[in-house]
Structure formats: structure tokens, C-alpha cells
Write a structure and sequence with these properties.
The chain is an alpha+beta fold. The chain contains 11 helices and 27 strands. Helix 7 packs across helix 10. It starts with 25 loop residues before the first strand and ends in a 9-residue tail after the last strand. The structure holds calcium ion. Calcium ion binds next to loops.
Length: 424
């Protein structure tokens, strides 16, 4: 494991920052309402790479790549350009690197923006969004609650990474408010469904993989891994009561379409490379097109906190990305196996990352066991599902020796369902 890469930016040397020089995650920012553009997090600052490109200090392409409000154009350039930017950023920001930025006070002032003065936007345009179901612990927990322990794991689960096509239109960046959805609800005792605000609104702790290189045919797992540009934290808000009524036979629909929140920073596969981990032992050998080809999960510690309105924060779950049964590379290879074209900006949710213990469960559905065992918050109150005003924050970091590769907070606050009368 490599140690901390030393930057001349002091705050990037803190063991607490999510953004040491080893990380260099990609986001989109604006300051005081100016034009959103590409930036790179370093310590408590954002490096304005659009400005450095304009000044010819970063020069990767004849046409500008970073003056846009998304990283899609850069992602389309492919792995060589990705590596070239990372190398140039490491050179510009290292203690012993190119002094063109570090040695120029005017340029430093213009190109380095305090993160706490910036607004963070969606880091990329989500072309399409697919959501998977890759944690065995999660699938067994939910299957037990929905269908009973004897049918917990569907028969296909150990052979293919199950997924469904979700909505790109409702993927939002951290900080966006979430509105409690209306939907059709039908409890086990109800004769007929009713249309009402969801009473069992939930979160899902996931990691999202961002496809960088497009493809038009089947991919090997190794090719799929190489095509992934990076990863975000992802909260796949879920209405469990709507889901329970609608999900058979075609899977979730309205229950998952309200919103999906992602972290503002894309952590690159290159930054996470030292933290690769193997998938677990297989109960059945996977068919050849899905077989593991080297370690493709990551040792990323993940947590969820819940903060009631005007209350204090409670950590309600801690788990790790390496608990998953399928890697994002396997999911992408599966997705492409029928010839489905994959595009730059496609987002692949891992599925809820639950671990083996009760405190490792990545959804409230599991933490409260379907509402039967409400869990405790630090103020002594109990929760089964979200209440209006609750703020949920996902955090994640790969822990190195004296540094952390983090994603920034992935937060959202639940607002009451819109009153239908007031719409008139
Ligand atoms: Ca999900």
C-alpha cells in the first residue's frame, strides 16, 4: 500500500480529509452563481481545471474538455486521456512537481477555490441508470421478509447479477431535497389498494459505477472493468409499501423512481486501484462470461447516518464495499452480454451493500426488520422508516496509511408529500 502523496496544499495532507493528493476526484462546481465547470477536489479546495485548460497549463485536447458543466466529454476520450490528466494533476499539485501553479500566487488565487464557497452540481450527465441487487446479505434479508426464508434467494441469484432499468431523470446530486412520494399502497389486510403518500419510505446504501468508455457488443469482465471511469456513493430512495404491491412480475417501478442521490465527486478507478479486493467464494462457479478476472471490489468503508429535523446525527449502519457478491465489472459485463450498447455516463447502482451483521444492514427495511423491530436513534427515539425532516447522509472512504480516499457527503432531506389539494 502506497503512503500519502505529499502536496504543497496543506489541507491535502490531513489524515481527515477525503481529498488528499492520492484521490483527485472529479466534480462540477460554481461560485456565486457563475457558470458551472469541471473541478478537482484537493484538501479543502477545488482546482478549477477549466481555468487551467484556458491558460494552457493543462492541455490534453484541441477542443476544451473542462469548460462544460459535466465530465462526460472528458470521459469519452478514453483511458489514455484519463491517465494523462491524472499524471498532470499529480505533477501540478505535488510538493516536488511542476511549479507553474505552486509558484504563481495570482494563478493560485484564481485557480483554487475554497470548497465551502462553492456550489456542487451533478458531476456528469446520467445517460441511463441501471440498478442491481448484488449483496447476498441484502437479498437474503429482503427475500426472507417478502417471501419467507425458504424462498429468500431467487433461483437465478447465484448465477447472474440481477438488475432492472431505472430512471436517469431522477438522479440528483447530494443536497437536493427529496419529496415523499404518493403511490398505490395495499397492505396484507387491505382488500383493495389506495392512493396515498408512502408510509414506508427508505434509503439504500449503494456504490454507483460510472461507465466511461462506450461499447456496442459483449464485453469481457476485464474489458468492463477497464471501461468503468469511477465510482460515486449512491442512495437509492425506495418506497417499500409501493414496492411490495407493484414489484411482481416486472420488478420495481414507481417505488424507485422518486429520486436517487449521488455524491458530488466521482472517485476514479485509478485512485481506488490500491484498494482492490476479491469477490467472495462462489457457491456455483459462474459461467465463463461472468467469471472473476482479478480483484474488482474495493475495500471502501461505508456508513449511513440519520439526523431528525433539529436533532442530532446517529450512525445507523456501517459496512464495506467488499461485502458484495458481484463487482460492478461483472454487472457491466452482464449488462452488455446481450449486445446492449453501453454509453458514456451510464450509471450502474451496485444494489444495497449490506454486511453479515445487524449493524451492517444498508436499508431501514433491514435495520427495522420490516418495521417489526424499530431501531434506536441517539436521542432515544425509534425509527422504522423515514419521517419528514429526516436527513440521511452516506459516507465512504478507502483507508490508506495516514490518508483516506473519500467521496464527500451524499446527503438528502425528506420533505412532506406534496398536498394534492394545494395543487388545484
Ligand atoms: Ca437499489
Amino acid at each position: 500500500m502506497s503512503g500519502l502523496r505529499r502536496s504543497w496544499i496543506e489541507s491535502a495532507k490531513s489524515a481527515q480529509t477525503d481529498f488528499p493528493l492520492n484521490n483527485l476526484p472529479y466534480g462540477v462546481f460554481s461560485v456565486a452563481g457563475d457558470t458551472p465547470r469541471c473541478g478537482v477536489a484537493i484538501g479543502d479546495l477545488i482546482l478549477d481545471v477549466a481555468l487551467l485548460e484556458r491558460e494552457n497549463i493543462i492541455s490534453l485536447n484541441a477542443a476544451p474538455l473542462f469548460a462544460a458543466p459535466s465530465w462526460n466529454l472528458f470521459m469519452e476520450q478514453g483511458q489514455q486521456t484519463w491517465a494523462a490528466l491524472r499524471a498532470r494533476l499529480l505533477d501540478l499539485l505535488s510538493e516536488d512537481g511542476d511549479p507553474v501553479l505552486s509558484g504563481n500566487a495570482d494563478l493560485r488565487r484564481d485557480a483554487l477555490v475554497p470548497m465551502n464557497t462553492a456550489r456542487l452540481h451533478m458531476p456528469f450527465v446520467v445517460r441511463e441508470y441501471t440498478d442491481f441487487y448484488a449483496s447476498r446479505h441484502h437479498a437474503e434479508n429482503v427475500g426472507t421478509m417478502f417471501r419467507g426464508p425458504e424462498n429468500a434467494l431467487p433461483p437465478n441469484w447465484l448465477h447472474i447479477p440481477i438488475g432492472y432499468n431505472g430512471r436517469a431523470s431522477s438522479v440528483v446530486v447530494s443536497g437536493s431535497e427529496i419529496q415523499r412520494p404518493w403511490g398505490q399502497l395495499k397492505g396484507p389486510e387491505d382488500d383493495l389498494p389506495r392512493f396515498a403518500p408512502s408510509e414506508r419510505f427508505d434509503i439504500e446504501l449503494e456504490i454507483g459505477a460510472v461507465v466511461g468508455v462506450p461499447s456496442t457488443g459483449p464485453l469481457s469482465v476485464a474489458q468492463a472493468d477497464a471501461n468503468i471511469f469511477g465510482y460515486v456513493l449512491l442512495n437509492d430512495w425506495s418506497a417499500r409499501d409501493i414496492q411490495a404491491w407493484e414489484y411482481q412480475p416486472l420488478g420495481p417501478f414507481q417505488s424507485k423512481a422518486t429520486a436517487t442521490t449521488i455524491s458530488p465527486w466521482i472517485v476514479t478507478a485509478a485512485a481506488l486501484d490500491p484498494f482492490r479486493r476479491d469477490t467472495p467464494a462462489r457457491e456455483f462457479a459462474l459461467l465463463e462470461h461472468l467469471q472473476d478476472d482479478g480483484p474488482m471490489l474495493y475495500d471502501i468503508d461505508l456508513s449511513v447516518t440519520l439526523t431528525p429535523e433539529q436533532g442530532s446525527e446517529t450512525v445507523i449502519s456501517t459496512t464495506n464495499h467488499s461485502e458484495l457478491y458481484y463487482s460492478s465489472a461483472q454487472q457491466l459485463a452482464h449488462h452488455a452480454s446481450c449486445g446492449c450498447p453501453m454509453n458514456t455516463g451510464d450509471l450502474l447502482g451496485s444494489g444495497t451493500v449490506s454486511g453479515p451483521k445487524a449493524e451492517n444492514r444498508g436499508s431501514l427495511l433491514e435495520l427495522s426488520w420490516g418495521g417489526k423491530e424499530p431501531f434506536k436513534l441517539s436521542d432515544g427515539t425509534r425509527r422504522s422508516f423515514l419521517e419528514d425532516g429526516d436527513e440521511v447522509t452516506l459516507r465512504g472512504a478507502a483507508l490508506g496509511d495516514g490518508f483516506r480516499i473519500g467521496f464527500g457527503d451524499c446527503s438528502g432531506t425528506l420533505r412532506p408529500a406534496r398536498s394534492r389539494e394545494s395543487d388545484a
